[in-house]
Amino acid sequence: MKLMNRILVLFLLIPLxxxxxxxGKATEVLVTVGPAAVTATDLEMAVRxxxxxxxxxxxxxxxxxxxxxxLLKRLVALRLLRLEASAQGMDRRPAFVQELEDYRISRLYxxxxxxxxxxxxxxxxxxxxxxxxxxxxPDALAAAKASLVAxxxxxxxxxxxxxxxxxxxxxFHLDRLQPGIxxxxxxxxxxxxxxxxxxxxxxxxxxxxxxKGWIExxxxxRAELLLFARAARDEGVDVEDDxxxxxxxxxxxxxxxxxxxxxIPDEKALKAYFDANPDLAxxxxxWHVGQLVVSSYAQAxxxxxxxxxxxxxxxLAGRYSIDPWxxxxxxxxxxxxxxxxxxxxxxxxxxxxxxxxxxxIATPLGYHLVTVIERRPGKVRNFSAxxxxxxQSIMDEKLSAYLDELQKKYPVDWKVLADGAAGGANGG
Length: 428
Prior knowledge:
With 428 residues, the protein is α+β, with helices and mostly antiparallel strands. The chain has helices spanning 3-13, 40-49, 53-56, 61-87, 94-118, 124-133, 138-167, 197-200, 212-234, 240-263, 267-276, 297-308, 313-320, 324-328, 343-351, 383-409, and strands at residues 29-33, 36-39, 171-172, 186-190, 193-196, 282-283, 286-294, 332-337, 361-363, 366-376, 379-380, 412-414.
């Protein structure tokens, strides 16, 4: 379902403007949102699951605090959307209930599959034989072991599946696959398990009955899923904590689905917004910039002479630049987008040839020498190439105002802010 991805869309839409937040105790309440709360544990889980998790420990403390602040804003927005979704009864809709049951079955199935895998091991004599056969060939040995385990697992899985079919007295009714078959026609049934035609072929998905072989394949796959999940459940496996966590994600996702359908009912809405906001189509020029910045004109002139005599701007920046980032990265400032830099510096970047070192540029930050390592020219895109960006812009704009309205219904109380400031869930 595309609902599964909507939570990610939400995370992209909410502006990244937030106060810095320091780490707190696990049970500490950072924010209350109506009757709901966001704790330090919630925030740390969001940090670990964010795209920045692998780089988090390499960030300095201000960067880590800023990331926590951004994620905390997003968690507050999720709480607001979840509360409103529940107030609108989305958690009682058949589609929501079915989605949770499907997730529950998939979690139970994964448990049972993992249990089967854990039963497998290569016998000692067979392992020794493989080591002798592939002596000195570690990659070939690893591949042979993996192939052997895979074949053993395939056989174990099939034997287990047959055992479960017998245990639950499963009967298939493939003879019922006839033109005009009704959605509630049972194709498989047993003790506590059943599958109807409508479970395999959903209404509206196909104008006519699909290929019989395809239906049979889907039926057997779904039957395996149900039987393994049923066996796990009978063994007392409890996945309800996972299901509740999934429900907490699914509700705001459903809310986003409804909001998008309301705000962007068709392509005409996208085109109208695109026509009203022509700047969206403009892709600004970008420059990969090298920079050396010092505190006086005289020092900048001395650096310029050294560069003209053959020294590297990047080596000098690593030694003398007063900009902490530039000094730490030997003058490599990364990519600068037109319109986001210092105007007087951008004017020079546009006029310079790649590799050329500028004359001295004075700004409130110091005296700069810059060079363009490489550039990406600007351009203007047409509507067909901009639909996703237009959709995101509309959602961003609408969502910001919508979250402000929700905060009137579900007041947000910021308990812990490192700088003592509070802000709205949309970053305002």
